[in-house]
Amino acid sequence: MATETPHSTLTTYVSDMHALVSHGLQAIERQVDNLKDKSTKHPEAYAAVRDFQRTLQAHASMLDARVNALGGSSTQPVKDAVSAVAGFAAGLINAVRAEEASKSIRDDYTYFSHVAIGYLMLHTTAAGLGDRETAALAETGYRDAARIIMHIDHIMPTLVLQELREDGLGVTDVTSEALSMVKNAWNREASTTGFAR
Q: How far is Cα 49 from Cα 29, in angstroms, rounded to an integer?
């Protein structure tokens, strides 16, 4: 069994993130195609997935460049660990739903939560091992994932209500109530979990 070194550990972690982002990008590109025809009906959803696509394209490029700078290759055969990470994103590809934009975006929320925690782990690893360049890359990735998650929180109530109306259901516009619920849930000052600052 080979001994892990800081360099090999970082190369593996960056490669894992590259696999997760690249496979997720495939799913997002399918969503862009699926929602293109509905762009007039669900403009916020379509604009969101286009933003997700651009963001993941940028992340794939920066991760590829970092893997290469570390002496690795993002085109090498996928190892077991990377395969498990990529498998999560592959599941997202299979879950892409043409019929309901809200459920498709919901699946993106799960995916970007996985991306965010992956970047947090990469940042912690890189900073702990003294690799500030990889840590900075991971911070950028984490911020983008967090921004996307918050954006999904913001558009989801409107999207759900639109689809309920399309199904012929009479619904009250509770968008502001839903957004208030989200804001209160994320307000750390109001938290009773002991993690409030």
A: 8
Task: Tell me the pLDDT tens digit for each residue of 165-184.
Answer: 888 888 888 889 989 988 88
Q: Are the beta carbons of 191 and 185 closer than 8 angstroms?
A: no
Query: What three-state secondary structure class fits 24?
Result: helix
* DSSP 8-state code for residue 72: -
CA distance 40 to 37: 8
| Amino acid letter for position 22 | S
In whole angstroms, what is the distance from residue 148 CA to residue 71 CA?
31
Separation of first and last alpha carbons in the chain: 44
Q: How much is the pTM? A: 0.83
Question: How many C-beta atoms lie closer than 10 Å to residue 2's C-beta?
Answer: 5
Q: Report in angstroms the alpha-carbon separations of 116 from 21, 22, 187.
A: 11, 15, 19
Tokens of 107: 């699946």
**C-alpha separations of 26 from 11, 31, 51, 161 in Å:** 23, 9, 14, 28
